[in-house]
Amino acid sequence: MIHAVLICKLMKFYTPVDVNKQQILFQQVYDLINNRISEEQSSFLVTPPSILLKDNGASAEPDGTDIQIIYKNFATLYFVFIVDDQESELAILDLIQTFVECLDMCFANVCELDLVFGWQTLQSVLEEMVQGGMVIETDKYEIVKAIDLLNMANGNGNMGGPAGSNANTDGSYLTGSLANAFSMFTTGGFSTWGAGS
Amino acid sequence: MSFSDSRLRPFGIFFEKSLKDLINGIRSHNHNAHELHGFLTKSVSECREEVKSPDMTIKTNSILKLSYLEMYGFDMSWADFYVLEVMSSNDFQQKRVGYLAAQQVFHEDSDMLMLATNCLKKDLSNANALKVGIALNGISSIISPNLARDISKDLIKMLRHSKPYIRKKTVASLFKLFLQYPEALRDDFEAFVEKLHDEDTSVVSATVSVICELCKINPQPFMKLLPLFYDMLIEIDNNWIIIRLLKLFTTFCKQEPKLRLKLLPKVLNLIEKTTATSLIYESINCIVKGGMLTADDVDTAVQILELLTKFCASDDPNLRYVSCVLFYYIGKINTAFIYSFDKLVIELLEDVDISIRSKALELLEGIVNEDNLIEITSKLLKQVAIEEEDYTSTVSGISYKITIPIDYKIKIIKSLLYLFSLNDYENISLFEWYITILGDMCDMVLYLKTSIGASNNNVYSKEISGLGVLVGKHLRNVAVKVPEMRDQVVLAIIKIISNSNIYSELSSILVNLFWTLGEFSSLIDNGNDLIRVLISDKEGLVVKLSPVDLKTLFVCLLKVYSNWVNASNTGHTAERNLEEVQKLCKELIEFYEKFSVSVDFEVQERSTQIIEFLKLSFEALEVLNNKGSEEETSGEGQEHQLPGKIELPFLVSDVLPGFFNSWELVPIKQGTQLKLQKKMDLDTSVPFLTAEEIAELDENDVENSFYEDIDDDYNSEVKDQYETSDSDIMDENPYPKKNNKLSKEKIDNPFYLQDDDDDDADGDNAIKERDLLDMNDNTSDTIQTNLDRIQKNKSALLLDTNNSNSGINIQVSRPGRNIDNVSTTQSKKKSKAKKKKIKIISDSTLYNDELEDKLFVNTSSITDKTHRPKNGIDLNLKTNLKNFDFSKPFTTKIGDDEYIEEEDIDINQLRKQFENLKNNDDSMNFKDGEEEEVIIIKKKKKKNNNKKKTNSGKSKKKSKKSVAIIDKEDE
Question: N or C terminus: fewer CB in 10 A for chain B?
Answer without folding.
Answer: C
